[in-house]
Amino acid sequence: MRKTKRNSRAKRNRYVMIEKVRKNGLFYRAETGVRVNIPGITATHRGGPMNDRSPTEIIHGIIEEQEERELTLMIAEQIERQRKQEATQLVINTTAGNYARVVAEVMRRDGIELNGQDCLVIRTRVLDMLAARQKREQRQSAAPYQWKTPERLRR
User: How far apart are CA 95 and CA 78, in angstroms?
Assistant: First the structure.
């Protein structure tokens, strides 16, 4: 703990004690109460008969609440990403299955009978083809911008 000067608003309390609490939260103790300053959360606690917890317990509670909110947010974002990925996978699998069915139907019309193994091979190849197309599209969308010389500089 170290002593530091407080701003000019609180002239009667020239010095307050500052203690580091976990991450980058700060704990200020003065005669008027406890001031907690954590990024995103600011709260003031004045001890009294209604609250029998110590200021340090209150601060740890606030920090834990903030960490809990951050974790909940991270989990929600991860679930959303997984849902999007699963939806994309479902579309690709459905497309491959439909393609295999159509190929089998066309070949059946031509008099060629396909067994389950043949349909599985067709489906696997279609999945490979769709994956290659998706990778190609991603590479093209991430390609660096090609700067073109303006008309007046081409002469």
Answer: 26
Question: Can you give the pTM of this predicted structure?
Answer: 0.36
Percent of the chain exceeding pLDDT 70 equals: 61
Q: What is the DSSP string of 22-43?
A: TTTEEEEEETTEEEEEETTEEE
Q: Closest Cα partner for 59 from 21, 29, 24, 17?
A: 21
Reading the block at residue 7, the tokens are 């701003």
3-state secondary structure (DSSP) of residue 3:
strand
Does residue 120 contact residue 96 with C-beta atoms inside 8 Å?
A: no
> What is the distance between the alpha carbons of residues 27 and 17, in angstroms, rounded to a whole number?
8
Handedness of CA 135, 136, 139, 142 (dihedral sign): negative
- Residues of the chain with pLDDT below 50 are 1-2, 4-50
Nearest one of 49, 7, 53 to 30, comparing CA atoms: 7
